[in-house]
Specification:
By secondary structure, the protein is α/β, with parallel strands linked by helices. It is built from three helices and seven strands, in the order βααββββαββ. Strands 5-4-3-7-6 form a five-stranded mixed sheet. A hairpin with a 5-residue loop joins strand 3 (92-98) and strand 4 (104-112).
Length: 167
């Protein structure tokens, strides 16, 4: 696995999500144990509540295992650069994205070090993580660089920065 860049908040967000999964696992185990004890007979034959808790438990255990593997790849990035000409974590940018000659989108984005981007934002600012193709293309680039490109599914996408908005 390649490195996954997050800031301190993104790392804490990751740990909180992992802790929620662990708590959920304990809850499902408790539910399964109760279903097993309440069953007539040997506890697991034709006991759909027990079977469902076992399925949920395996699913959660897989997610926890994947997150623990991912945790080894997390690299905390500190916002050290104070150069206003470089794009950094937390910067808000108004950009034009050229998907093709006929498909151009103007949008406002925030480069974030979160592990999971916030989908809903009060200011209609789209969060872009450092690990997304666009985030990787923008991070530490000069705002006057008009040659910012990134690839998605073998399509070259051009990004032009209209302005850097003070946040």
């Amino acid at each position: 696995m390649e490195e996954i860049f997050v800031d301190e908040n993104g790392y804490n967000q990751f740990l909180e999500e992992l802790e929620k999964l662990k708590q959920q696992s304990l809850l499902v185990s408790s539910t399964g144990s109760k279903a097993y004890q309440d069953a007539i007979g040997d506890g697991w034959h034709d006991n759909f509540a027990f079977e469902e808790s076992m399925r949920q438990g395996r699913s959660i255990a897989t997610r926890i295992e994947n997150m623990l593997k991912t945790k080894q790849c997390l690299k905390i990035i500190e916002n050290k650069t104070q150069n206003n000409n470089l794009i950094n974590i937390g910067d808000v940018l108004k950009v034009k994205v050229y998907y093709s000659e006929d498909d151009i989108e103007e949008t406002t984005i925030r480069l974030t070090g979160n592990f999971i981007p916030i989908i809903e934002n009060e200011n209609d600012i789209q969060e872009i993580t450092l690990n997304s193709p666009l985030g990787k293309a923008l991070y530490l680039k000069n705002i006057i660089d008009d040659n910012i490109n990134y690839d998605v599914n073998n399509n070259k996408i051009k990004v032009v920065i209209i302005e850097k908005i003070n946040n």
